[in-house]
Amino acid sequence: MIIKVKAKHIRLGEKQSRGCPVYLAILDATGNERFNVDHYNKEVHLSRNTHENIAGIVYYVVPRSVKRFVEAFDDDRKVKPFNFKLVEI
User: Fold this and answer.
1) From the CA atom positions of the chain, what is the Rg in Å?
2) β-bridge partners, 85
3) Residue 38's closest CA among 30, 28, 48?
4) H or E stretch including 66?
5) pLDDT number for residue 56
6) What are the start-end ranges of the E strands in 1-89?
7) Domain extent listing, the chain
8) Average confidence (pLDDT) per 10 residues, the chain, 89 residues
9) How far apart are CA 46 and CA 27, in angstroms?
10) Distance between CA 88 and CA 72 in Å, rounded?
């Protein structure tokens, strides 16, 4: 699935929180509020809680572009809209 982080996500996004632009873009694309974007130590981990998975969590590959974007956004550096592919592990 292709996720498009748009200018509106950047404008409305909040640093180091569930309301970051990446989360907002995933929410727009999927309508699924069960996603989590973990900002711990400037790393980004995407997971989704689900009842279909026995462990209750599905993990996703996070491209380096997402990590770089989140780090720049959280550090108050200028960021631009971008797209990335969301791939389930």
Assistant:
1) 12
2) 2
3) 48
4) helix 64-74
5) 65
6) 2-5, 35-38, 45-49, 57-61, 82-85, 87-88
7) 2-88
8) 96 89 90 71 59 65 86 94 88
9) 12
10) 25
